[in-house]
Write a structure and sequence with these properties.
The protein has helices at residues 3-14, 28-38, 51-65, 81-88, 102-112, 118-142, 148-153, 182-186, 191-197, 214-234, 314-323, 327-356, 367-371, 393-400, 402-406, 442-452, 456-462; strands spanning 43-46, 72-75, 96-98, 174-177, 238-251, 254-258, 266-270, 302-312, 409-410, 416-417, 421-426. A hairpin with a 5-residue loop joins strand 9 (409-410) and strand 10. Strands 4, 5, 6, 7, 8 and 11 form a six-stranded antiparallel β-sheet that branches. Strands 1-2-3 form a three-stranded parallel β-sheet, covered by helices on one side. A two-stranded antiparallel sheet has the order 9-10. The longest helix is centred in the C-terminal third of the chain and has 30 residues, at 327-356. Helix content is 42%, strand content 13%. The protein is an alpha+beta fold.
Length: 473
C-alpha cells in the first residue's frame, strides 16, 4: 500500500536520483544495513496507518544509536509536520524533514545534498520545529478534558423505549462472497481520492475541465478507464469478501457479541473508547457502544463485521510492470485496486442494508448520495477516528476467519495485506454517526487497558496518537 512512496521514487528517479526501494513493512535493521551497504545519502520512510508513526520514532532512535548523520525524510498519509517535530525529530541529531507530498521531495533532496543550501534548509526546519514544539507544549496545558465518568454520563442521547432493532434477513451468521464481479463495482468508484493519490488538486469531475490541469487529468482518467477495462476483461484482480451479522448488546462502552440468539455465551467483546474533550452544553461525548442497545434493555440488537479485498493478483502484475520499467502502469494498477476495494466496501454495505440485514429495503440512492452517506447506519474501521485501536482488527479476523475466507492477512503492525483491502464494523441504528474520539486521558486509558486485556504500556503504545499526556512524564 505504497502508492505515494512509489510516486516519490519515480519523481526522484526522473530527476536523476538513484532510489533503492525496499518495499513495504521492512524491518528497521534491514533499512539501516542497506543504507550502509549502498552508502545512502538520504533515508526516506513512508507511513500509511498510525502504528507507522511509532515505527518512525523507533527508527530515528536507531539511526541515532547507530551513529548515523545523514538526513531522514518522513511522509505518508498518517504523518504530519507536528508529529515529526514533536516525536521524531528529538530522537535524532541529524536532519529530519517532513515532506508533504511527492512534488516537494525533489527540492528537499536537492537542498539537503547541496553544500550551499543544506544549512539554510536545516536552519529553517529547526526553527519551524522549535516553534511547533513550543505551541504543542502550551496547548497540552490548555487542553481541557473531562473525567471518563463524566464523559460516560454525557453519552449519546438515544431513546431505546419503543425501538425495535432490525433482525437480519439472512439466516446464517456469516457469508463469503468470492470472485465478486469487478464490473459491478466499477459504478461505485469514488474518483476524488484517485486524483488525490496522484497529487492532482481539484474536485472531480471539475478537475477534468480545469484550464491549468484538465489535459493531464483527462489523460490520467482515460488511462484509468482503459486499464479498468483490461482488469475486468482479463481478470487481473480478484475480489473477495466476508461479512457477518451477530447478536450483540452494549455493556458500558463496550459491545458484547454473542454466539447465538439466546445471548448467553459471549463470543467476543468489542472494546470502545469515548470522547473526553470538553464539549459545549448539549453536545454528547460519543462512543460506538452508544449505538447498540444496552444489555439491560433486553432488546435483540445486532452488530456487523466485514472485510473486502480487490488486491488479490495485483502484486505479481505490479512487479511485472516494474520489471518492464513501466512504473506509471504499476502505480496506476495499485491506485485502481485501492479504489475498487473502497467501491466494494460501499457496494457491500448497500447490499447489507437493503438485502442481507434488510433494514433499509426501500433505499434507492445514486453513487453521489452513497458517497455523501445519505443512508442509515455506519461502517467504522478499527484504527480510524471513531475506534482508533488497530488491535481490534484481530477480533474481526477471528469472528469472520478473514484470512481463510478472503486471503487478507493481518501483519504484526495491524496493516492489511494485500493493501487494497477494507474492513470494519456495521451499525444499523438511525442515530449512529461517525465521530472523532480525539484526545483521551490516562484515567480512560488505564480503564481501557484492563477491559482490552492489555498492559498500560501496550495500550499507550497502540493509542499513542490519541494520548493527551506523555507516558514518559
Amino acid at each position: 500500500h505504497d502508492i505515494g512512496k512509489n510516486i516519490v521514487g519515480v519523481v526522484l528517479q526522473c530527476n536523476n536520483y538513484e532510489v533503492i526501494d525496499l518495499g513495504v513493512m521492512v524491518p528497521a535493521q534491514k533499512i539501516i544495513d542497506t543504507a550502509r551497504e549502498v552508502d545512502a545519502d538520504i533515508i526516506g520512510l513512508s507511513g500509511l496507518i498510525t502504528p507507522s508513526l511509532d515505527e518512525m520514532v523507533n527508527f530515528a532512535s536507531e539511526m541515532q544509536r547507530q551513529g548515523f548523520e545523514i538526513p531522514l525524510l518522513v511522509g505518508g498519509a498518517t504523518t504530519s509536520r507536528a508529529h515529526t517535530a514533536v516525536k521524531v525529530d528529538p530522537k535524532y541529531d541529524g536532519p529530519v524533514v517532513w515532506v508533504k507530498d511527492a512534488s516537494r521531495s525533489v527540492p528537499v533532496a536537492a537542498a539537503l545534498l547541496s553544500s550551499e543550501r543544506r544549512d539554510r534548509l536545516v536552519g529553517e526546519v529547526t526553527a519551524d520545529y522549535d516553534s511547533i514544539r513550543e505551541r504543542h507544549a502550551a496547548k497540552r496545558g490548555e487542553r481541557k478534558l473531562v473525567r471518563i465518568e463524566d464523559a460516560r454520563a454525557n453519552r449519546s442521547p438515544i431513546d431505546w423505549d419503543g425501538y425495535h432493532p432490525p433482525r437480519p434477513a439472512m439466516a446464517e451468521r456469516t457469508r463469503v462472497l468470492g470472485d465478486y464481479p469487478l464490473a459491478e463495482l466499477r459504478d461505485y468508484i469514488d474518483w476524488q481520492p484517485f486524483f488525490n493519490a496522484w497529487e492532482m488538486k481539484g474536485r472531480f469531475p471539475d478537475i477534468l475541465n480545469n484550464p491549468a490541469t484538465g489535459e493531464t487529468a483527462r489523460q490520467l482518467y482515460e488511462d484509468a478507464q482503459r486499464m479498468l477495462d483490461t482488469i475486468i476483461d482479463e481478470g487481473w484482480l480478484r475480489a473477495n469478501a466476508v461479512f457477518g451479522l451477530f447478536p450483540a448488546h452494549a455493556v458500558g462502552d463496550d459491545i458484547e457479541v454473542y454466539t447465538d440468539d439466546s445471548r448467553t455465551e459471549v463470543l467476543t467483546t468489542l472494546c470502545n473508547l469515548r470522547q473526553q474533550g470538553q464539549h459545549r452544553d448539549g453536545v454528547p461525548h460519543r462512543s460506538l457502544g452508544d449505538f447498540v442497545a444496552p444489555r439491560e434493555t433486553g432488546l435483540p440488537d445486532h452488530v456487523g463485521a466485514f472485510a473486502v479485498t480487490t488486491g488479490l493478483g495485483s502484486a505479481d502484475r505490479v512487479q511485472a510492470f516494474k520489471d518492464d520499467l513501466d512504473d506509471y502502469s504499476a502505480i496506476l494498477l495499485e491506485s485502481l485496486a485501492d479504489r475498487l476495494a473502497e467501491a466494494f466496501a460501499e457496494r457491500l454495505h448497500e447490499r447489507v442494508r437493503t438485502e442481507f440485514w434488510g433494514y433499509a429495503e426501500g433505499e434507492h440512492l445514486d453513487n453521489q448520495e452513497l458517497l455523501k452517506e445519505r443512508y442509515d447506519g455506519i461502517r467504522p474501521a478499527p484504527g480510524y477516528p471513531a475506534c482508533p485501536d488497530h488491535t481490534e482488527k484481530t477480533k474481526l479476523w477471528e469472528l469472520l476467519d478473514v484470512e481463510a475466507t478472503t486471503g487478507i492477512q493481518l501483519t504484526e503492525s495491524m496493516a492489511m495485506w494485500p493493501g487494497a483491502a477494507v474492513s470494519g464494523w456495521y451499525f444499523s441504528h438511525p442515530k449512529s454517526q461517525y465521530f472523532v474520539v480525539g484526545r483521551i486521558d490516562q484515567d480512560q486509558v488505564e480503564d481501557y487497558a484492563v477491559r482490552a486485556g492489555m498492559t498500560l504500556a501496550e495500550a499507550e503504545r497502540w493509542l499513542s496518537p490519541n494520548l493527551a499526556y506523555d507516558p514518559e512524564d
